[in-house]
Amino acid sequence: MKNEFKSWMTEMEEKSANTASSYCSSINSISQHYFEQNKKPLDLYTCDDILFVNALKKDYGIGGKYEEFGNKGKGTVRNAIAAYARFLEYKKSGGVIEVKTNKKRRSTNNTTKRNSRYKKYAIGSSQNSLIRNILSRLGNESFTEDDWKETKKHFTNRCAYCGTEDKLDMDHAIPINREKLGEHRLGNIVPACSKCNSNKGDKDYKEYLGSNTERIKIIEEYMNSKNYVPLEDNDKLRKILDLAYEEVSSIAERYITIIDDLFMRE
């Protein structure tokens, strides 16, 4: 079931391969931690009891009795068990998951299960869009295209990461997502060539630049000049965003049920 879970996260929730792997490892950690706390062996990858998993989701979530453990990895453990609960709900509803292996096989041959739709719009897309929208609108700041042009001039119209003169795209030095907590503020926007923009992906500027301290210093000096203070390691904000992320899924399910019931009565 581990491979199914990993494939579901990358395909249905559009998580990166690194995040999916991290969540899979966290599920194993929860199994071990539960055993240590309760002296009851547990392998979540052999468990399809949705009620039990939802109970664990509460225990390892905000305000739960294992909240401290759930907060490990900046909330990765808490988010992993929440994702696993959604995964089990998806399987229960008849969703088909394609497990990516060298032999490309499906977890089931029954492609006519209830509400299983090829290439349907993943709820993860809406969840991630909400988080990006929130992080893009925090605080009170305005800037224009002219400000963006000035930013490019600050970097002498070169890529902030490699210094090449090329077509420059707008890039967030700290990505706008739940993990990195970047914002759409002028101090977090830097020019990037297409190659660096693509290669950087979900990494922040420090992860991407690695040992290139000179480039890191240039970017941080620019951030300071715009009074930009990153939100990284803000656990309170991350917990609030986690709640917003989960709420999108709950809202979708509620209105699907309302609309389905309406058409069934008609």
Brief overview, please?
By secondary structure, the protein is mainly α.
End-to-end span in angstroms?
39 Å
DSSP, total strands: 4
Radius of gyration: 21 Å
Strand order of the largest sheet: 1-2
Strand percentage: 5-15%
Largest sheet properties: 2 strands, antiparallel
Structural class: mainly alpha
Overall 3D geometry?
Answer: elongated
- State the helicity in percent bands: 55-70%
- Extract low-pLDDT stretches: 100-113
The averaged pLDDT comes out at 84
Counting DSSP H or I runs of 4 or more residues, the number of helices is 11
| Domain module count | 2
Which H/E pattern describes the elements?
HHHHHEEHHEEHHHH
Detailed description of the structure:
The chain starts with a helix and ends with a helix. Helix content is 56%, strand content 5%. It has 266 residues and is mainly alpha-helical.
Task: Give a topology summary.
Layout: H1 2-12, H2 17-38, H3 50-59, H4 67-70, H5 72-92, E1 98-99, E2 105-106, H6 123-136, H7 145-154, E3 168-172, E4 189-193, H8 194-200, H9 205-209, H10 213-225, H11 235-265
Antiparallel strand pairs: 1-2, 3-4
